[in-house]
Amino acid sequence: MSRPTLEAVAARAGVSRATVSRVVNGSSTVNPRIREVVEQAIRELGYVPNPAARSLVTRQTNSYALVVSEPPTRVFSDDPMFSTVIRSASVELEAADKQVVLMLAGSPRGHARVERYVAGGHVDGVMLMSMHGADPLPAALSRLRVPVVSYGRPTVPVDLPYVDNDNAGGAAAAVRHLLDAGRRRIAAITGPLDMIAGQDRLAGYREALRDAGRRPQIALGDFTRESGAEAMRQLLDDDPELDAVFAANDMMAIGALRTLRSAGRRVPDDVAVIGFDDIEAARYCEPPLTTVRQPVSEQTAAMVRLLLTLADGRRPPDRERYKILPTELIVRDSA
Q: pTM of the predicted model, to two decimals?
């Protein structure tokens, strides 16, 4: 059976093809009584709009790009952060009858590919995630005048709407918890310092120690479990007497636990450990990991809602355009 056409719907409803087209594309200029007749004809014939033709009329694709500035090996690793954001964005867009297009931009070629794809009009807006250093995409996409929102504060001086969480405040709360428990030699394993999350969590750690008159001890990590294990070995070599460590994410904290266990250090008796994120694995560590919970799903949903608002041509208030969500310290056995 051939697919019903606009002409067939128009004949069934007794109206022009142009009127049917306006109804299908959501025009508000159609008389309500005529709209009802057309919609009845659509239901009777089982007419389904041609997405490509409809896009030409509305200039909308109903698709939104989620651009992750990481290589595939990082995005599809065992770090659940990426899958949580992808899933949450998909759910939120599906509820709005939209879809997400995942794009990876972990290299200059990836950046260029994303820019070409967006410039080609294939998406109605863009969500940027996991930007490093002088990422060129915020400036490039802003020149295309397409709605763009960042998951986290952008790393470049571009007026880019974003939704973030209180990275610095969460890290400071973690360190204060260690200080209140009597810990005095508190080290930190940082995230990548070309990322805002890494910078802010280090700043929170430094602030809490400075207020307490304590000296920072720092080892660099990159948010992976392996880097956490290696950084913990470095910290133990530098100061065998350290009694606590704050890791800038849970994956690195889990790596640090493995190193401490191998070194014969008891957690939390000898060394207390706190992470950041509250991934599911944090509850099943040995011992269960004290951590800072960041609202990843809520942050993603707020990012999608902000992007849809901008794509609809509306300007949200600044409290929504530049949004910071609270974090929460979750105390378990590791600290």
A: 0.81
Contact assessment for residue 195 and residue 132, using Cβ atoms and an 8 Å cutoff: yes
Q: Can you tell me which residue has the tokens 């802003």?
A: 142
Cα(81)–Cα(114) distance, integer angstroms: 22
| Cβ pair 238, 180 in contact under 8 A | no
Secondary structure class of 155 (helix, strand, coil): coil
The tens digit of pLDDT for each residue in 205-260 reads: 999 999 999 999 999 999 999 999 999 999 999 999 999 999 999 999 999 999 99
- Please report, for residues 30, 35, 48, the alpha-carbon distance to residue 26 in angstroms, rounded to integers and kept in the order given: 9, 10, 14
Name the token pair of 127. 């969500």
pLDDT higher than threshold 70 for residue 165: yes
How many CA atoms, within 13 angstroms, populate the side-chain half-sphere of residue 275? 32
DSSP β-bridge partners for residue 66: 102, 127
Residue 145 pLDDT: 83
Q: Residue 124 and residue 243: Cα distance in Å, rounded?
A: 51
- Cα separation, 140 vs 335, in Å, equals 44
- Residue 84, SS3 per DSSP: helix
Q: Which runs of consecutive H residues, i.e. helices, occur in the chain? A: 6-13, 17-24, 32-45, 51-58, 72-75, 80-95, 108-119, 137-143, 167-180, 196-211, 225-238, 250-262, 296-311, 318-321
Q: How far apart are the first and last CA of the chain?
A: 67
In 3-state terms, what secondary structure has residue 136?
coil
